[in-house]
Specification:
The chain has 624 residues and is an alpha/beta fold.
Length: 624
């Protein structure tokens, strides 16, 4: 039998728990001791009827107040299908619990009290179900017995809710009039509503299409842990969140980009030839590759998107408002990275679906935002893949989950906005006048070509250490050099700039222009700048002839540079004392095609300097 995950939602006292109790009772899914306990509790409370809500309301506070507070999961089955039901609260302060319950559901039952009609919570939960890409929505108009089973009342609710749902991206919506207390149209057909000729609620649940939201195309395997039970086996455990995989298929491990093929797929029951989404397996590879928790294994020719800036819908779930200047921990599949909300585009009014300007977000607010991470995420848009398109934000100090997000697309960042030919600024009423000496004349006198060596990498990665050693090596060989360092230029030339994205861009623009002038005087210009944005580095490259701008990526793991922390800046940034610090509260876009990649956590500075010297010789910039 297949499995249907569903969730209930609605306003307070719409009868969600009673409906689930009726489903369990009439489908013969209640054990004898459960029945006796509910009967006894109903009598002790003096209820004139059997309180079916007691079957799901397990907390004492829930039973005392007659409301649902926590998400309660219930399991039952019929001869046709298995079901997992998430009974979620109706109070507005518990809307975050509804997001939790609906995040994995394929169908959402939105209950509406026939006496009250469509209320704000009815719309809110329908809107959340559409945002969470729940494929099917079933609107159950409950308590029809309290409005004399009126067809007119039911039709008015259907018309109003259908008009609201037309503004949403809802794949399938169904309306059923029910009475959970009396059992009308829940499991058995109602005799009191002959005007309704549709299916009962259980019949609809048994026959609705299951699996329409499962992505069986894009293989995604977030690694939970590496297993090595003995020296002859090394595998990687996790759950396949989408797609399928078979032994022998070529795969790529992200973020390293190393390729291999699947050797075995192992489960508790033994090895498999093929595994599908939802299977928890251990995959071993044909090659010895370093793979750890947070990595993702995908097919070689079917890669996810990668970005450190993306637009998303954010549901704020914390009583503490969003701190737009604070960094959070972003949990995406099995990976955690530092992130912050870079831009709050607008908040969404659930009643009207209109956009509102907002400075922050409060409990249950829903907004369109731009999130920036300190390391790239490997994702698919949420509408394509719920597993790799969703994430949560965690407060690093309390470890509380503060928000749930759905990635829509990669943000329109500086790469997208940069023109093909970068625009050069110039003052008005000025005329360019060249030097009396050409660059070729200077290079002939110097005995070498001019070039720009652009060292980029995280703070503490070793850029300046390598650059200073390299400058000594070049000086000893009679090479004319010009050295530009990130801290040095901010003591004068760029002393008026801060560390916002705009100021960082201007900082690199000025440095690039100075480097170009020194290059035209025949010097080898050594530039050491974090320069975190690819667009800024591309602008600097665009100012020089091809082959004479060398981007040298000084690669070093973030955890290593945080341990080094030569200036104590990482410690201050983690305490929140430094805003917009690269690697902590501001992203670093690693070069995708650097001219040279050097790793300071595995090689000495002297070895790296010799490698750079050999590269200059190979390119003919200097003579041996």
């Amino acid at each position: 039998m297949d499995l249907l995950r569903l969730t209930t939602a609605g306003s307070v006292d719409d009868g969600k728990s009673t409906l689930i109790g009726r489903l369990l009772l009439d489908s013969k899914a209640i054990l004898e001791d459960q029945w006796e306990a509910v009967t006894r509790a109903s009598k002790q409370r003096g209820d004139p009827y059997l309180d079916l809500a007691l079957l799901t309301d397990g907390l004492r506070a829930e039973r005392e107040q007659g409301i649902t507070i926590d998400v309660a999961y219930r399991f039952f089955s019929t001869p046709r299908r298995k079901f997992i039901i998430a009974d979620t609260p109706g109070h507005i302060q518990y809307t975050r619990n509804m997001v939790t319950g609906a995040s994995t559901a394929e169908l959402a039952i939105v209950l509406i009290d026939a006496r009250n009609g469509v209320v704000t919570q009815s719309k809110r939960h329908g809107f959340l179900a559409s945002l969470l890409q729940t494929p099917h929505i079933l609107v159950a108009v409950n308590k029809m017995d309290l409005v004399d089973y009126s067809q007119a009342v039911f039709q008015a609710i259907v018309d109003e809710y259908r008009a609201f749902a037309s503004k949403l991206t809802v794949q399938d919506i169904t309306f059923i009039p029910i009475s959970a207390l009396q059992g009308d149209n829940v499991v058995n057909k109602s005799q009191t509503m002959p005007w309704y000729d549709g299916s009962t609620l259980l019949h609809h649940l048994e026959n609705v299409n299951v699996g329409s939201s499962r992505n069986l195309v894009d293989f995604r395997f977030p690694v939970q842990m590496a297993l090595r039970p003995h020296q002859d086996f090394r595998g990687f455990a996790g759950q396949i969140v989408s797609g399928t995989i078979a032994c022998g298929e070529e795969v790529v491990v992200l973020p390293s980009g190393k390729t291999s093929s699947v050797r075995t797929i192992t489960t508790l029951e033994g090895d498999l030839a093929e595994a599908v989404a939802g299977d928890s397996v251990v995959i071993s590879l044909a090659d010895e590759i370093d793979v750890s928790r947070g990595d993702m294994i995908v097919r070689r020719h079917n890669l996810p998107q990668s970005a450190s800036q993306f637009e998303c819908i954010l549901c704020w779930m914390s009583e503490e408002p969003l701190n737009i200047r604070a960094s959070y921990i972003l949990q995406h599949t099995t990976r955690q990275v530092r992130a912050f909300v870079a831009t709050l585009n607008y908040r969404i009014d659930v009643d009207t679906l209109h956009r509102e300007q907002a400075e922050t977000l409060h409990l249950n607010d829903i907004a369109r935002v731009q999130v920036t991470t300190t390391q790239p995420l490997f994702y698919d848009p949420y509408q394509i893949n719920r597993a790799t398109g969703g994430f949560i934000l965690i407060d690093p100090f309390t470890n509380n989950t503060v928000a749930a997000g759905m990635i829509r697309r990669r943000a329109q960042d500086l790469d997208d906005l940069a023109p093909a030919e970068p625009e050069r600024r110039k003052s008005s009423n000025v005329v360019w006048e060249g030097s009396a000496l050409t660059q070729a004349m200077r290079e002939e006198r110097n005995g070498h070509k001019g070039a720009v060596l652009w060292f980029t990498g995280l703070s503490g990665s070793g850029k300046s250490t390598i650059a200073r050693l390299l400058e000594r090596r070049l000086f000893a060989a009679g090479i004319h050099t010009f050295y530009l360092d990130g801290d040095t230029v901010r003591h004068g030339l760029n002393g008026d700039l801060g560390f916002t994205a705009e100021d960082r861009k201007e900082n690199i623009r000025r440095v690039a222009e100075v480097a170009r002038l020194a290059f035209e005087h025949g010097h080898i210009v050594i530039c050491t700048f974090i320069s975190p944005f690819a667009a800024d580095r591309n602008f600097a490259r665009s100012l020089l002839p091809a082959g004479l701008f060398l981007e040298l990526y000084v690669k070093c793991d973030l955890e290593v540079v945080k341990r080094r922390d030569p200036k104590g800046l990482y410690a201050r940034a983690l305490r929140g004392e430094i805003a917009e610090f690269t690697g902590i509260s501001s992203p670093y876009e690693a070069p995708e095609a650097a001219d040279l990649v050097v790793e300071t956590d595995v090689r000495s500075a002297e070895e790296i300097v010799e490698e750079v010297w050999e590269e200059l010789l190979r390119r003919g910039i200097v003579a041996g």
